[in-house]
Amino acid sequence: MDPNAKPAESGKVQEKGVFEHRSFARIGFLGNPSDVYFGRTISFTIGNFWAWAKLEPSDHLLIKPHPFHDLVQFHSLDNLVYRLENDGYYGGVRLIMAICKVFRNYCKDNGIQLHDRNFTLSYDTNIPRQTGLSGSSAIVSAALSCLLDFYNVRQLIRIEVRPNIILNAEKELGIIAGLQDRVAQVYGGGLVYMDFSKEHMDKLGYGIYTIMDINLLPPLHLIYAENPSDSGKVHSTVRKRWLDGDEFIISSMAEVAKLAEEGRTALLKKDYSKLKELMNRNFDLRRSMFGDECLGAMNIEMVEVARKIGAAAKFTGSGGAVVAFCPDGPSQVKLLEEECLKSGFIVVPVQLVPTRLSSSDLKTLSDSKP
């Protein structure tokens, strides 16, 4: 997929019974990774990159392999090994199969009747791999949207529940993650404040999600490496330490969650000097908990390149890309571009995407207040 090409409109019906949807890459702006620790986060999707899914009726149910991401033909044995060593055993077919299974089981368990017609599902993506921009969940989210329309059940499955369905599909494949990314993508753009407090999670099974005005954000930049091979390959013990009652991890994660709460206030007041402080503190807390070996030298360098010229910077996710804020404006952005060029990093302005929820989506939202 050409990253400069205009994506197909989300939900566009090209012909009768054919559905296309896209789901955008996600930036975890503040509070991550506290979403898996009963915390709070602020996230938004960006128009720079997206995944796309297309569903069309067919006699047999077919999941189409992607010509690049799901390769089964190679030039040689060496070529096969090279691809596996660089890209792993993963492609999009397994993701789509998982969401089909989880979607069907959810409908069955909740008394939602599905017709028995078959379909062909295909996908494409231009989200850079291993950049912490939620590329996998974007594919799943786009596919789920196609299924909702094909079976005409969009109005029967509440928006707040859909991120759980996506996450459950990824859990089928052993992917360990939180709800934050899936919420941002299900909400179809815009800025979302998320409260994953234990009280809400225990009572509802999901968090409390509040849509904010995307225009509250200042101009931001995305930094990433073309070859993110050094993405922190040491397994983290943070989750285990948190479960074991480690006071440092528990207090640090609580502080990370509080950054999202403070960030919400700062955004509403457009207090961008405070926002800079919160972004930097978010990364510093993550670094203190996870350690440099776990984060990866290249990831840390991306943050330091931005901080070197006075910009705020933090991970977009768990590593692989960085979101930067240059409070001093265009002159500082130019310095950032120069430093990234010297270090071999790609830097692009973040393209903000307003929320794209449909009227039927909004109806499920308005009917689902706790």
From TrEMBL:
The gene is LOC104705721. Keywords: ATP-binding, Nucleotide-binding. This is Probable glucuronokinase 2. Residues 99-189 form the GHMP kinase N-terminal domain. It comes from Camelina sativa. It holds the Pfam family GHMP_kinases_C. The keyword ATP-binding applies. Residues 265-332 form the GHMP kinase C-terminal domain.
